[in-house]
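Can't attach files on this board, so I'm pasting raw text. These are the components:
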Amino acid sequence: MDTLEIRELRYFVTVAEELHFSRAAERLGIAQPPLSRAIQQLERRLGVALFDRDRRGVALTHAGQVLLEEARVILAGTIAAARRTRRAASPTQRLALATKAGANHELLRRLLDAHSTDVEVTLCGVGEQARMLRDGRADVALMQRPFDDLSGLDTEDLLTEEQVAILPAGHPLAARTRLSMADIRGESDLPVARWPRHDGTYEPGPGPEIRDSFQLAQLVALGQTVAVLCASSRSWLWSAHAAIPLTDAPHVTTVLAWPAHSRSRAVADLVRTATGLADRASKEERQAQNA
Amino acid sequence: MDTLEIRELRYFVTVAEELHFSRAAERLGIAQPPLSRAIQQLERRLGVALFDRDRRGVALTHAGQVLLEEARVILAGTIAAARRTRRAASPTQRLALATKAGANHELLRRLLDAHSTDVEVTLCGVGEQARMLRDGRADVALMQRPFDDLSGLDTEDLLTEEQVAILPAGHPLAARTRLSMADIRGESDLPVARWPRHDGTYEPGPGPEIRDSFQLAQLVALGQTVAVLCASSRSWLWSAHAAIPLTDAPHVTTVLAWPAHSRSRAVADLVRTATGLADRASKEERQAQNA
DNA sequence: GCGCTGTGATACCCGGCCGGTATCACCGCA
DNA sequence: TGCGGTGATACCGGCCGGGTATCACAGCGC
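---
Top answer:
Structure tokens for the assembled complex are below.
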């Protein structure tokens, strides 16, 4: 009746990406005529024009843009479903945790130590955790608010910390005990490093584009840039670095994230371990403040 | 290759729900043999057993349970995608907003007044907003934290308010200026009304099971029950009701919610209107406190 | 023990749909 | 006015999804 089929959605997404039937057909490994026909069928079934076949080019209609968003989510969902199902059947059953390299090493180690069963840790690129959760390569991830895109995920706060400026040890500002964002932005010889945004692009600016923490460490040590990181990054800094607390940078909360509605027993167990840790940590913090 | 098909997922979910091939086939409107074959194909392709065909009965394997969760989400996604695509093509293009009847009437009216373009308001049952968002019947919804299930949705806080106890006007407790939860739970002649949980069931207890606010209003007026509601519910109370502030009930935040990753321009516009309202409201509140 | 009932699995056939090739209609362009 | 390139159309063949008939096997009543 009006039930979309995965094959149709795959075809549609490819055409929408290429905006060219012949190239799309080639990418799909089929001939062009069946592809044209499949898209026509889809449009007929929906009762909606998805493409404007103007002379000189194919363009998405507004409805087509809507379907493109939806279809991408659905396709990612199906491959995630297949992956998760296979993983659920595998005898090892190790929970897969994705985390950005270099982020909160200490926290992660405490979490793994506290957890009874085995966890497989995957280090992924900056901001890639969400994708790994969505396509089923990971069951849980360590992510950071407000940097990472947490929409569509359930989360549990683990740790909130202030941010610090990472400077070359010899830099004049490195002698200060605290800095403001204005201080480091004012250093025209030391542009602020730029992290990728949710969509993987970088906002324009003079600073270098950062892909991973190690690259950043090296650039700072070379005196090329200054970076803003959460305080726990101190654990992997070099002697050539100086970390100065920032008074006016937003606090960063590291969270444990997992796909919304995940009913996995193993995920639930890890979350329980994590909340236990977080509770203990906040209790210790209160005691330290009282003392 | 290993690409799940919607038809297979639909078949699988039906069998998983019925745990009986013949009945499932009947529900699907096909014969039993093709259904058996389809499930076998699915299992072969995944390389995973989804059902335990024990003598005397069919049961889901662990992997099958995982796939069932995933498949339900995907199927809901496809019908939502079709609906949203069709709606995007419709000339009227009215934004559909779902809200629980009786919740924050005042707030909603202010929101609609402030918004320039037309919004179609759908009143739905308690806790049904999430389903309407997920299956594409609504673009945005008014929901309440912590009552509603907000997982998988993006939200914007609109208003936080305390809760009040709704009592029959003649009840002894109605003369008090404030109450605690213990006060109203202690009234054995007046059981506390029970709202449905996220899954639609009710936790066991003596109070009546509530489906909508009007039903609740009537039951309270009849002296059958006492209810706990957010303060703004006062706007639709009867003269036969008394609303007494509760000192120890959690605060309730009304939020505007929409599907995560929605790129709809119309949704973004409404959210902007809403945040403008919320900002103005909090500013007025601060001024009131200063005065 | 022996049918009977009801389960899911198997065997086999048929028709429709998906994919292929060949071709058309139509545009921009030299 | 041909020529290259676009997507659409026409038509054909093989595959696969759906059908019926039947089997294998368990529980059950006699």
